[in-house]
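Supplementary Text 2. Reproducibility record for the structural model of the 265-residue chain.

All settings were left at their defaults, and a single model was retained for analysis rather than an ensemble. We include the record here because the model underlies the residue-level annotations in Supplementary Table 4.
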Amino acid sequence: MAIGQLAVASLPVVACRPEVDGAAAGRLQAFVATRGLDWVEAPGDSPARFTLAIDQGRIGLIPPRDHPDLGSHPLVIDFAADPRFARPLARKDALARATGWKGGYRPPVVDLTTGLGRDAWALASGGCEVTAVERHPVVWLLLTDAIERAAEDPALAAIAARIEPVFGDVLGAEPPALHASEETVWYLDPMFPERKKSALVKKPMRIFHQLVGEDPDAAALFAWARTQPGARWVVKRPPGAPTIDATTPDIDYRSGRLRFDVYLG
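Retained model, structure tokens:
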């Protein structure tokens, strides 16, 4: 069953009742009400489940107490505080080259696996209009909370305005409507297999892996995207990983521990 077809109530997630009001608290309360999650009074009250809670005015995901390997700090998406978002994407960067930046031209991008939003934010910071698709409901909550907070920050509002978050599973029974043209770049970043040495994986990503799991339908998602109008299709992979299917990329760009396979229209 695809993630987008899962009911949130079936996920190992509870929510900690907010102690103060605010925009993030309102978003969390609305999510709990519409998705049917259980409330707890304090993180750790349900030791086998993740806990959604307000952390410094942000919605965070606290790992289960029964999984000490995941740490105790919440997973939070914060485009203002996280230094990885501070530097705008430059034309020389592999992601920019892979998505086809030329001079002042910035193509529209549909990110089909937005996740924690790092690449969507990077592309938007460089001027791309990004449709950010996410199908996991809890990740969607963290992502939209981060985008809405960024929209209220004068230093980040212009970047946030270039990101259109869309919830849903394009392979599901009720796929979201996506707008594309012959200029669209389709971007996929399937979940990488977790490294054997878990110490090499930072705890926020280990929390993300534990919650979301792998993307067994990544090849099907890519095949679907290839039927849509567009200029290029970009797949992010580890350097030594096989291509997403038997098709040979037209180009690949490499940067450190990443490879971007590019398929032209």
